Amino acid sequence: MAKGLAQKMFPGGFYVDSAGTDSETSGSANFRAISVMGEYGIDLMSHLAKNVTDVTISDFDHIIAMDSNVFDSVIKAYPDMEDRTIQWQIEDPFYGTVKTYRRCAEEIFQNLKVLITTLGLSELSIYPTSDGR
Question: Which structural domain range is residue 39 located in?
């Protein structure tokens, strides 16, 4: 969900990817995530999960860790990335309901808006809404 929202909110000149610390490399997006992102006009049907070991993490300007456990795992595996890793505190919705996924999506959306401002990109106005516009 974070990748889909970030891709929609950031212009084409930004490369956005998603990888997890516990992700199976062949897993598709959860049906609840697909449903909720559809409400934002984002299609996750072809999304496949991947692990951080499947990406060249040093190529990224910023890494967003969704919670403190992920942050700690990333820093332990990639200590040189600590100054480029941002820690959020967003509960993993995996075992939750669609309502849980909606709350998670909104938290990601709000955090991305703060990140846009923090990075000095406040001129971006590509904010998705829950009706897909």
Answer: 2-53+64-117
